[in-house]
Known about the structure:
Layout: H1 4-29, E1 33-40, H2 44-64, E2 71-75, E3 85-92, H3 97-107, H4 109-114, H5 116-119, E4 130-138, E5 158-165, H6 169-179, H7 184-191, E6 197-203, E7 209-216, H8 219-231, H9 233-239, E8 250-258
Antiparallel strand pairs: 1-3, 1-4, 2-3, 2-8, 4-6, 5-7, 5-8, 6-7
Amino acid sequence: MSYIKPILQVLSAILIVLFFSNSVSDSALKREYYEIKIYTINGPEQEAKVDQFLQKAYLPALHRAGISKVGVYKPIKTDTTFGKRIFVFIPLKKLDQLSSLLTALDKDAAFQSAGAEYLNAPWDKPVYVRMESIVIQAFKDMPFHQLPKLGGNITDRVYELRSYEGGTEKLYQKKVHMFNEGQEISIFSRLGFNAVFYGEVLAGRRMPNLMYMTSFDNIDKRNELWKAFGADPFWKKISALPEYQHTVSKSNVYLLNPAAYSEI
């Protein structure tokens, strides 16, 4: 029976490896994914058609597919892209929902009926100019999106979507590190920025890249909080650290108002 002890030792080692492998996998699964669709439109007619499709067909179909809330946003009136873009924020529990949603929508008779005008638009009368899709994985220090706690008039609310590109993959990862281990997220939280999400872009037109969205009662509150952020002692400390220098090669800021039917 002397051979039993070595076998038991091997089995124990295998079980330990499997335990830790499953723990890592479980941890990875506890971070959400997001898809951001950006519609480019050329006027009120296309805007109305995309709005109707999203409100009457797409969002209800996503709800039936298990996605409870979706955000829809448009550039504020003072932005040069006002009336030219529509942003759609879709939270996903797993990455494979990107493909399973396509199958679900294809089989959803109610979606096909409600979205018929959009889905069957003729080639010479398209309902949008172009549509971009960005796939994002949530940061580990904010693994799930949050519904903002805002007050005041809904039409005054401002959602700020930011995109930070890195000059190299290594520099980009340092900026991601700054948000997480460097505790930049904690500054936003402490000052009351009402973050909706922070995440790493996995696929999109601009790479390497991270994106995040914060929200405010109005534009004045937004400006007030960013002023406080710039003066914050902890921000000044971490932003001066050598390891975080030159981590952003290009930034894009999108100031948005929620659509009347937006759910986030």
